[in-house]
Amino acid sequence: MMWIIMAVLSAIFAGLTSILAKCGIRKTDSDVATALRTVVVLLFSWIMVFIVGSANTITDITPKSLIFLIMSGIATGASWICYFKALSVVNVMRMKGTLRSYLEEVNADAENMLARLETEMAKSEGVTEALKRQDQMTWFQRKNNIRSRAMEIVQREMIFV
User: Fold this and answer.
1) Whole-angstrom Cα distance, residue 19 to residue 21?
2) CA distance 150 to 132
3) At what angle do helices 2-24 and 30-52 cross, to 10 degrees?
4) Which sequence spans correspond to the domains of the chain?
């Protein structure tokens, strides 16, 4: 039962991390924000090591484990840098007034791609007006299937990149 409580707390703190970081970066250079946040995490981590009394286990870390821990640290640092850069770019776009036009452009491109894909897929699969006149239910089912597949392509290639 304790693991569920810890998992819920982890999710809450992860959400708070993003919210607080977003608030903290508003008028701060993203690299300085990353460095400051890293210092706080470093201090907090070492305090926890000494509080729980596990400092003496450092010598038990195998070279293989050490390599993976270092790689994990590098990945974490890269994640933080990318996260803060993304926040700062969005904030700059918001301040310049270009975020809305950028999102409108992405939306228009996505809608155009969706329409093109639906047209191409319908043509290649024989979903025509003649089929619609002949068997509306089949036409409707196949058209919905095409739309669903086309939307998945658009989301994969344009939205969730």
Assistant:
1) 5
2) 20
3) 150
4) 2-97, 100-159
